[in-house]
Amino acid sequence: MVTTSSAAVLDKLEILDPEALQKDPSNLTVILHEEDHTIGNALKHILCKMSEVEFCGYNVPHPLEDKILVRVQTRRGISAANVLIEAFDQLELVFASIRQKFEIALDEFHAK
């Protein structure tokens, strides 16, 4: 399921080698524009917990460039692209939970 937020993230995605992805859908490397370690590390953490994922990692090609490279390798027969989308959806839920807890704590603080 692609949510509105993950659809916005997908607009920032560029598949590094579309031909390689067609040959082997279990290997995917993407460039995620306008992002940095904040999303990269959180995304890697979610991906590493997924049972379908054999390898995941990210790097920042250059500190002055506003992009990260994300690599996902899944078990044979599992689409790395679908797993990446699922990871973005899970990450969205994590961020929503953090936001909700923060807003509750802020309301409690202002109520004092």
Defining key terms:
112 residues, Gyrase A, domain 2, alpha+beta, 22% strand, four-stranded antiparallel beta sheet
List the helices and strands and how they pair.
Elements: H1 4-10, E1 13-15, H2 18-23, E2 27-33, H3 37-49, E3 53-59, E4 67-74, H4 80-111
Antiparallel strand pairs: 1-2, 2-4, 3-4
Helix pairs in contact: 1-4, 3-4
Describe this structure in words.
With 112 residues, this protein is an alpha+beta fold. The chain has one domain (4-111): Gyrase A, domain 2, CATH 3.30.1360. Helices cover 52% and strands 22% of the residues. It is built from 4 helices and 4 strands, in the order H-E-H-E-H-E-E-H. A 4-stranded antiparallel sheet has the order 1-2-4-3. A hairpin with a 7-residue loop joins strand 3 (53-59) and strand 4. The relative contact order is 0.18. The model has no long low-confidence stretch (mean pLDDT 93).
Q: H/E element string?
A: HEHEHEEH
The total tally of domains equals 1
Would you tell me which CATH topology applies?
A: Gyrase A, domain 2
Helical segment tally?
4
Can you identify the CATH superfamily?
RNA polymerase, RBP11-like subunit
Shape: elongated
Instruction: Using the CA coordinates, give the radius of gyration.
Output: 16 Å
Please state the average pLDDT score.
Answer: 93
Helical content class:
40-55%
Secondary structure category = alpha+beta
Name the CATH class: Alpha Beta
- So, CATH architecture? 2-Layer Sandwich
What is the CA-CA span between the terminal residues?
Answer: 41 Å
What's the number of extended β-strand segments? 4
Proportion of β residues?
15-25%
Pfam families: RNA_pol_L_2
Family: Belongs to the archaeal Rpo11/eukaryotic RPB11/RPC19 RNA polymerase subunit family.
Keywords: DNA-directed RNA polymerase, Nucleus, Transcription
Organism: Toxocara canis (Canine roundworm)
